[in-house]
Every structure is written in structure tokens, then in C-alpha cells.
Specification:
The chain is about 70% helix and about 0% strand. It is an all-alpha fold and about 325 residues long. α1 crosses α3, α3 runs parallel beside α9 and α5 packs across α6. The model has no long low-confidence stretch (mean pLDDT about 85). This is NADH-quinone oxidoreductase subunit H.
Length: about 325
Amino acid sequence: MSSETVDVVLRLLAVFVVFLVLPLVIGQTEHKVMAHMQGRLGPMYAGGFHGWAQLVADGVKFAQKEDVVPRDADRRVFQLAPAVALLPYLLVLVALPLGPGNAVGQVVDAGIFFVLAVMGVGVLGSLMAGWASANKFSLLGGLRTAAQLLAYELPMLLAAASVAMAAGTVSLPGIVEAFHWWWVPWQIVGGLVFFTAGLAELQRPPFDMPVADSEIIFGAYTEYTGLRFAMFLLAEYAGIVVLCGLTTVLFLGGWHGPFGADGLGWLWTLLKTAVLAFVVIWLRVSYPRLREDQLQKLAWTVLIPLALAQIALTGVVKVVMQ
């Protein structure tokens, strides 16, 4: 086996380890942050000190539950949906640069197009689950997921296009290399649009109408139990890692730190991603759920005009600089 092949295998193995570890860390952190912010006592007791075993207890609970498939469900599609929801985030992590040089699973020349296209595929898991469950509540949740994807995919793409225009490339490592700190105030509106649209695509509160328990039980996932249900939850946490990592790479300079220590670039990327993940959890416990009409109105009357304005500003600044 050649040294180049070994290098690729090691980098892909590292990406897989990150994929298995970071979503679980986000899940454990969410338990603790929500417990502190909302005064929840339960998650602070499991295992003793600070409830360290809560995530382990959840894993055992999911593993012990019976794997039930509804009698009238499309069995093959029903069983395949959790994997379709989860695996696209692994493919995105492969193209996400952690640091300079070879600190990326695989460099993709059209990185922005690749990651945004693959992230969109993950929503198909929810659509498949809702359609295959033979449950009206699940079907309604799947339809809401589709409507939400259509509304929020456009502002997300427009915001990412603004950064690509500024950097003059659609390669993710190329965008980070072209980054300057004075971009932050200039591109902040695009960053907020991208981050907000990403939260909506992940169906995170306050954009969780497709899984509104007070209306449609748990949306497309109502009929799922055990490990298949756990895979949907893991896909949500993996999506948080991917969204925060992408926001870091596109709008916060990726591996660039205040001291110019590119040798610790991977650490700066992880720190920025962790801060954004905390913001995601903070938003969950801070804001009430939007109504369906409010959710659509925010996308079409607020985020899309802001994203278009950001592209116009980027074009003006590029012309002035040249």
C-alpha cells in the first residue's frame, strides 16, 4: 500500500471518529446546558457527579426498546430512512477543512456546492419516514419538512454565494485562505442568514414545526422506536456539528486565530464550532416555537431580501477594491 493511500485512509478514519464523537458531545452538552438554564434536575443525577452518565443511560434505553415497524408501513423505505437522514452529514464532514494543509478528509474543488447539495439530501430521510409510516401525523410532518426545506434552502445558498464572491473561489480551503478579519463586520448579515437558515433546515427550535409535539406528536418520527429513532436524534446532533463547522469556515475564518498560530488551526476551528453549538442550544431554551405561517414569512420576507442585499454589498465592495 502506497504512502498516499495510507494518508487518505488515515484522514478518512479521523473524519469517521469525529463523526462518531462530536455529535455525542453536543448531545451531552445539551443535556447539561438545558438542565442549568431551565432548572431541570433529572439530567444532573445519572451516574453521580454532574449527571455524567445521562448519555449512557439514554443509549441503553434506546438499545433496549423494541424495534417496531407499523403493519401498513412501506417496510423497506421505513427502515432505510434513518440512514438517509444520517449519512449525508458524514459526507459533508469529509470535505470540511479542520486546519491548513492536509487537515481535511478530501479536498473538493467545488466545496460549497458539494456540502450544500449533500446537506439537502439529509432532509429526504424525514420525507421518507413520514411517507412510509402509514400515519397521517407523520405524513403531515414530512410535508412540513419539505415546505421548510424549500423556504430556507434559497437564503442559505445566497448567503454562501456572497462569501464565494468575496473569496473568488468555491473551494472551502480556498475561502479560509482568502479570509481577512475585516470580512466579519462586512459579511455578518450573510453569516446570520446562513446560520438561521441552517437551524431551520435542521428543524431546531424555534423552527421545529415539523416535529411539533403539541400538534403532530413528533412529526415524521412518530412511529419510530429504539435505535432507529436514536439515529434520527444523532442526525440532528451531527447536523449541528456540520452547520456550526460550515459557519466557522465560511464566515469566521476557520483555522485563523488571533495570534496567527496556524499550527493550532484545528483548535481554533473546534473552539469556534463549539461556541456556535452552544448558541444553538441556547436558542432552543430561549425562544418559543414559531407558527407555520411565521416560519414561512421569516424566510421569504426577511432572510431572502437580506441575503440578496448581502450579495449586492459584496459586489460593490469587490468593485471598489479592484
